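SAMPLE LOG
Freezer: B-3
Tube label: C17
Construct: single chain, 253 aa
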Amino acid sequence: MGWGCAGASEAMIWSAAASMPSAKVTSLAAARSTPNGPTYETAPEVNDVLVAERLKRAPAAKLPAVVATAHVQRGWRSPDRWSRHRSFTLVHDVEIAEHADFAALAGLASVESVRPLRSFMISDRLDDVVDLRGAAAELQADVLLIYTFETTTRRDTTVPGVGVLTLGAAPNVRQIASSAATGALIDVRTGFVYDVFDARSEHAQPANAWTSDEAALDAVKRAEEQAAAAFAERAEERWETVAERSTTRSSRR
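STRUCTURE (predicted):
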């Protein structure tokens, strides 16, 4: 299997759905200090239509919702090499998927089903979240749950000098991997971001001079699996909050 990712960017979560032409937009107000406290006046016009359009986005998902899941990475690596690309990759990692188990999410009353995206459903080049929203629409999904892993490693020497005395045979180092699974719940129809959240894990693997590389890979694998399991639990909790807010808004209409 490919071992996780480092260098994945949260920009994928926040990227714009499409480029837009320039236009003038007036901001709400600017504060100005006076002896009697702050007053507000109309701010100068700015060419920032993209921000204005994003602020207009609103939730449109219907409950119970169909949730599409997508694990994306940039800088996907295998045990023996790194690869980096401008575009993102939709990843299907069996071992990670076993731990990022969204069965509990699928069992909620506010969720009709959870449907994972697969690579054959999108183009080879994945530059923007709009590509994932399009694929999610093919599944008739209401919400897109997109997530990625940021994993770093470090090496600690536990007993200095022992490695030299034992010709590298004694386990005198620890390979430590720290992994963060970061994700967002996004409205497929409008691009509205309901929530952004993460889950973190760290794993230390003992090693000696001869097993250091294998220990690093194992530490990454275990840290990412633990982060994936914690992320799945977090996703269930955060979706319940999102659904509750949606129900409250609907009851007020």
